[in-house]
Design the sequence.
């Protein structure tokens, strides 16, 4: 029985109900692999273009054509599996999944049924507040993408109500990873965290662009609810048609509310497929009657099995960069960096790699972070170049940071030197020594500057003594000016206070 | 094995073949006849053999990830039963053509 | 040299030696074939312009100093093989007007070796059949008796060569579709080991069984043709990446030291008396050539038909799904795409094709997959094992290619009786072994008035093509059965165009 509007509204506003019911969510993703050519032929694996211009006898399924698997796709799959600690079996094969659909050129899809390229695995991820979570993977397998249908004649591009469809096979045959997650996820936020972890990892590995808006990541969510403490899972509904992480979040939230409302209203959740309607903010049932597919899986006779040599797997593992979660843990727990800044870094793997190299030398993660995310990124943004494409090598930055940490130069000078390094490259040490930019920390010298400034600013001294604290800033600034920026600002401040007190 | 009646209509639907009632009867009878013959496989002991996947022993046959020229668009569309604006047009898809 | 009667070897030698041009060969064959085919019906499409174009190219290459193994040899191509720009129909209404936009590898290699494409030959629809009668687009007759079937599924390719309307031709063999029509049409028909010849461009029937192979009037010609077509192809993942052993020029001339296995379960006593006698004589001839006859057992061969008629239909039900009216071929419109599929396929496929799609879909369907498809694949392993054991005691197995000579049209209306025509060839196919049929005499068929050809099937271990063709060559050299029979007057080379 469908939830009444009132019940739904009540559920949506009622956090008490959310405490009563536990949501159980399993995510299934299809991720297009970033190869040059398609999975079984040499046509380009590229988004966009005029329809039916990137096809050949194989991906168009002309009579007589035969598939040959893309070695790179297999390698990327293995890397993806290893990134999540999945098991890479010794033996794998392809199977045919038989069903008819206009965007399926062969009317079967070459996929993997009982011997996928990876088994198991765990996706570790984090929530915005830094809580660590994990979701087990059932498997990741390799298959080929379908063509794309556009539905015409209904006015809104949806299938229902359309009078005909137009099919483009440019996408047919693009290699696809199907990632099936266990139902370990318990909230919409977790679902998004999980997806972000997948995305970050795949982008870092170069396995996929993972752009939902371009279709290189598509996902469905299986959602069910049960009373907290109940031993059995509730009936699940499969949610489709979510086009962004935001949609995934909202759709899951909406579906949880709907299911709770149904149950609270005395009804039962039906196992069905439901489509997310972004505009209306609800899910709609997509099937009038449940029809089980008989895919008639059988081993693909046009392909031979894969025997995955352990040495090859190890070679792939050795060449992989660290996974984002590893970075997350290291940055937040070992380095004490905030979740927000960690996320910022992790989302930019190139920058994170740069950061890691600098920290290896400086052993000063916080200071390094401040430079990297602060002034260095600012310089990079202003010039429209990425940090790693710029002239400041990790070694040069590390040198600059070392000079700052040793208090050889002050922060203002450091800023200037950084700007010089960004513009011309080179070494911080050379610049500082060459131009005598070293911070003046000799108390005697500073005392002289302080004397001069106090002498010239008697009213300020009076104002400070009268309680105006911020006058000190002005005075520090004056001393810095007099010393051409080289005085050690902390010493300056300390001496100023001392001297004023003595006057 | 083949003792119950075959659901020829169901099989025909899976195979996307429109069959008349007469054809359902006729093919049904012929299929059942074949299955009676095929029943002799029950007598063959296959408990200790693996299914043949391929008669050849090849493994790991793959291709490098390089581009190969595509078919010319005009050639592709020349064979299309109903080309439209460079697409293949098909009648409306009823949501679950599963 | 008379191009109609000459062997491929003779034609190639003469063209390479510039004694005759490929264009002259083409210009002789084109009218000849057109005239013969009025009666024979071997071809669905004749390609005279293409033949001339290839002839010109061959002559140019010869003039530039090249030597081509099949220079100027007139070749017929079975119509389930894609040849760029030609109608490629599989003898089905569903592809009746389809023009192939590419050429398959084996055909490409054949033409690159200098062969001239005469046209595309008739066949049983989608290679499903053993008589040629399942063609939806034409009727091919046996060149030795126009009232009898040529065999199938490579009906036209066998008939063309047997009827002197081609020097060589390509066929495909899944359960016997080269060997059986070769036997019926008095020619050599050779199926290589599975994986030896690329399947890229061969419209698939049963992927794990299909192989392309040659028809010719001599073993040597068959060897030359196979050598041109065979070898690894990166476009076919099932083509074997092994050094290719050429066969022509390495053919032995006797059978001394060769152990020929005679299969206990294929007793000639199962056959009609004069057919049995012919085979017994053939076995005796093998002995006269120095072979030792050895009895071998293939206890599971009797399960071959059941095994085959589960595996092949299962694979074909999937392979033929792509014929859906969306991208090419016949389309019959419907109110929605589902109706379009059903009506298109109902109109486009003939009865035998529908039968096999139905049985194949059933064998793969949920609840039946293990009992049928998996069981059959296990039975296949047992059959292959039997052959392996047999080859421990013999080098080659000899048997009838078919249980009778060519039968009359409409003689086998019951599907299963037709399936029985492949009884001897199917087990060999299931094991993937190289195998051929070579003319071994004749017998009067039931109700017939003239003797019809018989074929001896030889099968040898995997990848032993050179040895196999050698055994056949030795047998042919000593017995020369093919030339003892005269084709129908409409096909006899002497009588068609007069002296040359």
Sequence:
């Amino acid at each position: 029985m469908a939830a009444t509007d009132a019940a739904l509204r009540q559920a949506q506003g009622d956090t008490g109900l959310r405490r009563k019911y536990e949501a159980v969510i399993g995510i299934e993703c299809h991720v297009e692999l970033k190869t040059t050519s398609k999975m079984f032929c040499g046509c380009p694996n590229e988004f966009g273009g005029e329809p039916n211009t990137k096809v050949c006898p194989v991906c168009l399924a002309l009579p007589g054509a035969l598939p040959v698997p893309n070695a790179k796709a297999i390698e990327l799959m293995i890397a993806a599996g290893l990134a999540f600690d999945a098991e890479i079996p010794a033996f794998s094969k392809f199977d045919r999944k038989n069903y008819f659909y206009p965007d399926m050129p062969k009317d079967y899809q070459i996929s993997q049924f009982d011997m996928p390229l990876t088994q198991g695995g765990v996706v570790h991820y984090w929530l915005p507040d830094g809580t660590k979570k994990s979701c087990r993977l059932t498997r990741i397998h390799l298959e080929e993408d379908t063509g794309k249908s556009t539905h015409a004649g209904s006015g809104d591009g949806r299938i229902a109500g359309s009078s005909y469809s137009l099919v483009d096979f440019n996408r047919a045959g693009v290699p696809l990873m199907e990632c099936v997650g266990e139902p370990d996820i318990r909230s919409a936020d977790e679902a998004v965290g999980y997806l972000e972890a997948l995305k970050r990892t795949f982008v870092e590995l170069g396995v996929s662009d993972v752009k939902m808006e371009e279709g290189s990541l598509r996902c469905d969510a299986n959602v069910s609810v049960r009373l907290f403490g109940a031993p059995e899972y509730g009936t699940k509904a499969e949610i489709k048609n979510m086009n962004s992480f935001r949609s995934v979040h909202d759709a899951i939230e909406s579906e949880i509310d709907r299911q709770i409302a149904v149950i609270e209203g005395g009804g039962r959740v039906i196992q069905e497929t439901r489509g997310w309607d972004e505009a209306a903010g609800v899910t709609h049932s997509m099937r009038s009657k449940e029809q089980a597919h008989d895919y008639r899986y059988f081993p693909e006779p046009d392909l031979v099995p894969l025997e995955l040599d352990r040495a090859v797997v190890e070679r792939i593992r050795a060449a992989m960069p660290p996974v984002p979660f590893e970075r997350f843990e290291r940055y937040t727990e070992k380095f004490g960096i905030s979740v927000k800044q960690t996320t910022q870094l992790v989302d930019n793997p190139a920058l994170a790699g740069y950061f890691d190299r600098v920290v290896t030398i400086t052993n000063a993660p916080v200071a390094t972070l401040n430079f990297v995310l602060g002034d260095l990124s600012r310089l990079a943004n202003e010039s429209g170049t990425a940090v790693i494409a710029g002239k400041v090598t990790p070694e040069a930055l590390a040198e600059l940071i070392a000079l700052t940490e040793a208090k050889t130069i002050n922060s203002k000078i450091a800023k200037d030197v950084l700007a010089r390094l960004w513009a011309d490259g080179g070494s911080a040490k050379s610049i500082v020594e060459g131009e005598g930019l070293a911070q003046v920390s000799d108390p005697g010298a500073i005392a002289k500057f302080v004397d001069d400034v106090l002498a010239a600013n008697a009213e300020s001294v009076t104002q400070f003594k009268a309680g105006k604290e911020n006058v000190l800033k002005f005075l520090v600034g004056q001393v810095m000016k007099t010393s051409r920026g080289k005085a050690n600002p902390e010493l300056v401040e300390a001496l100023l206070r001392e001297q004023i007190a003595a006057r | 094995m083949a003792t119950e009646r075959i659901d020829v209509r169901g099989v025909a639907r899976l195979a996307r073949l429109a069959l008349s009632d007469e054809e359902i009867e006729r093919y049904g009878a012929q299929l059942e006849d074949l299955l009676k013959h095929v029943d002799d496989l029950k007598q063959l002991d296959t408990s200790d053999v693996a299914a043949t996947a391929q008669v050849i022993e090849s493994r790991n046959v793959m291709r490098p990830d390089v581009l190969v020229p595509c078919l010319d668009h005009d050639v592709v569309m020349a064979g299309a039963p109903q080309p439209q604006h460079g697409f293949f047009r098909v009648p409306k898809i009823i949501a679950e053509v599963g | 040299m008379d191009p109609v009667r000459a062997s491929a070897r003779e034609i190639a030698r003469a063209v390479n030696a510039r004694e005759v041009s490929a264009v002259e060969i083409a210009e002789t064959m084109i009218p000849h074939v057109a005239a013969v085919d009025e009666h024979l019906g071997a071809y669905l499409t004749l390609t005279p312009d293409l033949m001339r174009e290839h002839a010109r190219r061959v002559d140019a290459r010869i003039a530039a100093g090249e030597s081509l193994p099949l220079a100027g040899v007139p070749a017929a191509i079975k119509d389930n093989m894609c040849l760029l720009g030609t109608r490629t129909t599989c003898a089905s209404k569903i592809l009746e007007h389809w023009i192939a936009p590419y050429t398959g590898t084996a055909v490409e290699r054949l033409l690159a070796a200098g062969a001239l494409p005469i046209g595309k030959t008739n066949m049983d629809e989608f290679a499903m059949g053993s008589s040629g009668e399942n063609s939806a687009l034409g009727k091919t007759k046996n060149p030795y008796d126009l009232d009898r079937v040529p065999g199938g599924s490579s009906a036209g390719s066998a008939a063309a060569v047997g009827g002197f309307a081609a020097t060589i031709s390509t066929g495909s063999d899944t359960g016997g579709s080269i060997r059986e029509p070769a036997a019926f049409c008095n020619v050599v028909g050779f199926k290589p080991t599975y994986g030896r010849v690329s399947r890229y461009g061969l419209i698939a029937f049963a992927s794990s069984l299909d192989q392309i192979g040659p028809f010719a009037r001599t073993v040597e010609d068959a060897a030359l043709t196979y050598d041109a077509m065979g070898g690894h192809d990166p476009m076919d993942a099932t083509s074997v990446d092994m050094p290719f052993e050429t066969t022509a020029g390495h053919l032995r001339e006797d059978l001394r030291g060769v152990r020929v296995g005679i299969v206990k379960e294929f007793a000639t006593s199962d056959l009609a008396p004069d057919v049995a006698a012919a085979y017994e004589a053939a076995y005796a001839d093998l002995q006269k050539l120095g072979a030792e006859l050895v009895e071998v057992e293939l206890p599971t061969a009797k399960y071959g038909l059941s095994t085959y008629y589960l595996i092949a239909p299962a694979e074909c039900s999937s392979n033929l799904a792509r014929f859906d009216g969306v991208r090419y071929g016949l389309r019959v419109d419907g109110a929605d795409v589902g109706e379009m599929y059903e009506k298109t396929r109902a109109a486009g496929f003939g009865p035998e094709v529908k039968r096999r799609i139905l049985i194949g879909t059933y064998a793969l369907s949920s609840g039946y997959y293990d009992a049928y498809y998996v069981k059959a694949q296990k039975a296949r392993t047992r059959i292959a094992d039997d052959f392996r054991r047999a080859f421990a005691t013999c080098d080659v197995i000899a048997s009838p290619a078919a249980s009778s000579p060519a039968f009359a049209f409409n003689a086998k209306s019951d599907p299963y009786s037709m399936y029985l025509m492949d009884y001897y060839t199917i087990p060999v196919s299931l094991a993937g072994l190289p195998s051929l049929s070579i003319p071994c005499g004749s017998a009067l068929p039931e109700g017939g008035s003239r003797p019809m050809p018989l074929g001896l099937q030889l099968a040898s271990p995997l990848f032993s093509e050179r040895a196999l063709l050698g055994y056949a060559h030795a047998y042919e050299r000593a017995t020369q059965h093919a030339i003892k029979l005269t084709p129908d007057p409409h096909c006899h080379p002497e009588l068609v165009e007069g002296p040359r």
Confidence is low (pLDDT under 50) at residues 495-500 of chain C. The interface with chain A takes residues 80-82, 88, 90, 95, 98, 100-102, 104, 199-204, 206-208, 234-238, 314-315, 318, 321-324, 326-328, 337-338, 341, 361, 364-366, 369, 373 of chain C (CB under 8 Å). Chain C has two domains: 8-258+407-497, 301-379. Chain C is about 40% helix and 15% strand.
